[in-house]
Amino acid sequence: MNPVLQLGDILLVNDTKWNLFSYAQHVTSGKPYTHVALGIGPVAGYDSIFEADLQVTTRPFTHLYLHKEYEYEQYRPINFTYKELFPFLHKLYNEHAEELYGYSQIPWFIYKGIMRVLGKDVSKQANWFSDGIICTGIGLLYLQMLSEKETVLKVPVSKFNIDTTWASDIAGIIHTFPKVFKLIDQYKIKK
Questions:
Q1: How many domains does the chain have?
Q2: What distance in Å separates the CA atoms of residue 121 and residue 61, rounded to the nearest whole number?
Q3: Per-residue pLDDT tens for 61-108?
């Protein structure tokens, strides 16, 4: 497998290795998504992704598809040109590269999970601690940028804050609009 990643592609990732945060997302959302990354084009000859992990960073796309503990779906915004997408990724990179990960936001996500299980949506509430940024914050900022042209995204994107959004929330928006986002590739672990 040698998938092609383009600038502006969105990767919805499932980290299948057990860790508390991924497990909590799976249980409370009922969805297999734990991470979001964006395609930024080639860096040093490698198709690369922009993501928040320990900090906001770039790394080769091979990090995902060669490591067997990650499943992913790759979506492409289909009504945008390279020339339209480049300023969005440039802005995200310029403003967030090397920003520290928002670890202090995690307790709020546990609260969100408990409230979701109880049938209450607290997505629009502010996170108690909003320092740093998490992968879904980067993803939501990108969807906000896309919504300036694809206005059908404005309402669903407005339901979330950058520090209160889960990967399953980003996936829900993408899956709702197949005329805006095309599934390009996916990798599922064979069990």
A1: 1
A2: 33
A3: 887 767 778 889 999 999 999 999 999 999 999 999 988 888 888 888
CATH label of the domain that carries residue 166: 3.90.1720
- Structure token pair of residue 106: 């995690």
Q: Which of 72, 68, 62, 65 is nearest to 32 (CA)?
A: 72
Contacts 24+ apart (CB under 8 A), 39-46: 39/5, 39/6, 39/7, 39/8, 39/9, 39/10, 39/11, 39/74, 40/7, 40/89, 40/93, 41/5, 41/6, 41/7, 41/89
Q: Which helix (H) or strand (E) holds 167?
A: helix 167-176
Q: What pLDDT sits at residue 1?
A: 45
Query: Across the beta sheet with 56-60, what order do the strands follow?
Result: 56-60, 46-52, 35-43, 10-15, 70-77, 181-187
Report the C-alpha gap between 86 and 130 in whole angstroms: 27
Residue at 64 is within a domain: yes
Tokens 């503990």 belong to which residue? Answer: 69
**Residues paired with 37 in a beta bridge:** 11
